[in-house]
Amino acid sequence: MKSQYSIDVAQGLIHKRHVGTVTVDDEIQLLNTILSDPTYRKGMDALCDFTEASGSWSLTDLDRFRAFVTRIKKVTGECKWAIVLPPGKDTSTARMFVALHDAFEDTITVKLFDKSAEAMAWLRGAKVKS
Question: Which end of the chain is more exposed for a tag (fewer CB within 10 A), N or C?
C-alpha cells in the first residue's frame, strides 16, 4: 500500500490518498502520523481518496478500527471524514465501517461518496444528494 497525505491549514482540511491494498494497520499508522503532524489542528475535516485502493477488512478489523477512531476523538474533535470510492467498486467494507461507526460515534461524521467534487462540497457545508 502506498499512501500520502497533505494538510491545508488555511482550509482546515486533510487530504489522504491511498493506492493499492489498505490494511487496518496501514490506516491506523497513517492516522497516527497525521495526528502527530505539527500542522494538524483539532477539528480538521478529511477528504479520504480510496479511488485507487482496495481492502477487504474482516469484522474484527472493522471493530478494531472503529475502536481506534473512538479513542482518537479527543484529538480530532468534531469533524467530517468524506470517503471517496469509485462507482462500481465493492464498497461493502466501507459501508460496514460507516454503519458500525454511526452506531457508536457522535464526534466524527463519516459519509461515502463516488466523486471528489461531491465530497468536497459536503465537507464545505453544501447540500449533497445522499
Answer: C
Distance between CA atoms of residues 72 and 69, nearest Å: 5
The structure's pTM equals 0.85
The answer to whether 98 and 63 are in contact (CB under 8 A) is no
**Over the stretch 46-55, which tens digit does the pLDDT of each residue have?**
999 999 988 8
**Strands, E assignment, 1-130:** 2-8, 13-21, 45-54, 79-84, 108-113
Instruction: Quote the CA–CA distance of 62 and 101 in Å, as a whole number.
Output: 9
Sheet holding 108-113, edge to edge: 2-8, 13-21, 45-54, 79-84, 108-113
Mapping DSSP to helix (H, G, I), strand (E, B) and coil, where does residue 71 land?
A: helix
